[in-house]
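User: quick one - fold this with adenosine-5-diphosphoribose bound?
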Amino acid sequence: MQQSTQVAIIGAGPSGLLLGHLLARAGIHNVILERHSAEHVLGRVRAGILERTTVDLLDQAGLAERLHRESLVHDGIYIAFDGQRQHIDLKGLSGHAVVVYGQTEITRDLMSARAAAGLVTHYEASGVALHDFQNGQKPWLSYLRQGKPQELHCDFIAGCDGFHGVARHSVPPDAIRTFERTYPFGWLGVLADTPPVAPELVYAQHPRGFALCSMRSKTRSRCYLQCSLTDSVEQWSDELFWAELRSRLDPVSAAALQPAPSIEKSIAPLRSFVAEPMRFGKLFLAGDAAHIVPPTGAKGLNLAVSDVRYLAEGLIEHFRERSRVGLDHYSARALRRVWRAERFSWAMTRLLHSFPDQGSFDHKLQQAELDYLFSSRAAQTALAENYVGLALDA
Ligand code: APR
Ligand code: PHB
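Assistant: Sure. Structure tokens for the protein plus adenosine-5-diphosphoribose:
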């Protein structure tokens, strides 16, 4: 079957769904092709910290009603190290708070809004392939639905298909440059119905490895442990997880920890990755398809949202005013923000993790950095303004 649309979007994660929503509100027709089922997409547990620019955009797009009802506003974070827990007053230092709301919930809200607006998403679309996006012709996608070949013709393709997606891999190798750092550890995450150990997130630096106590609500916690890349989830019973978490926390947080059965448990490797540019003719990459940050800075979703905002602006300008300016600037504009978030996420990762190859000199530097952070308002302000999110450029 042959179909056509103005913008063909690959991937129904937060990037693809939000782009589709912003375009449809501006009267631009779009179709989303997603490899998995909606249930599968909603089954993935991801991070949950939203910057104010992310919340503002969701608000303006009419997507934040449930978010305002169910989210938690946090004015600060704790950093635990050396047997104590210190507070970073994000709001006092930067003027802004952050919002705690699971990315899975954002995806759910976006899917509901898309269904309510009657917009088309083809789930379980397999074998998506990109054609004619770089040669000045009209681009199109081929794919299979229930085993039957399909074609989707379009003016533009948006590759919102995550790190393992097909879009970035369809670009000729000589047209793309990638920058990557992998880290010699992963994060073991557990979701459990137990109250958070503190009213705000606790990031812990400890000789046994990093730990994080985050939350989804006042009764549901999301906690992480730095683990070895060779670890498997089966090796980590719930008992072992909570005992190890307790051993890495400061005494006040440790005393508040109430172990509970895990609802979800998974291991994710840590990676920094950027692909440049983010535009190839009539193909645009957005979100994890173009870049990955380690989760320590809580930037992944927020960066996806800022990409999508810039891309939607460019596409709307193109269709409304026949102007190419926004699209021509998309890649440079998005990458500038991406690299600043990459820098911050890398710095937070380095500050708080134990690196297996770390010598005694590196360890001393890490301690000195934490000591400096808590003796300098300027250093705390720098952390705070990056954590709450840098302003979007005009
Ligand atoms: N064809 C169709 N869909 C695909 C294909 C493909 N070949 N490959 C991947 N996808 C789908 C995935 O199944 C997934 O649903 O693309 C979607 C990409 O979604 P995400 O990985 O969530 O990426 P993105 O929407 O950019 O979200 C960025 O999610 O991973 C986190 O940390 C990240 O918070 C950030 C946010
Ligand atoms: C989470 O809640 O899952 C979370 C919060 C902060 C991070 C990473 C993950 O830095």
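One thing worth noting: Residues 10-16, 33-36, 41, 46-47, 103, 125, 128, 160-162, 165-166, 287-289, 300-301, 304 surround adenosine-5-diphosphoribose (ligand 1) (CB under 6 Å).
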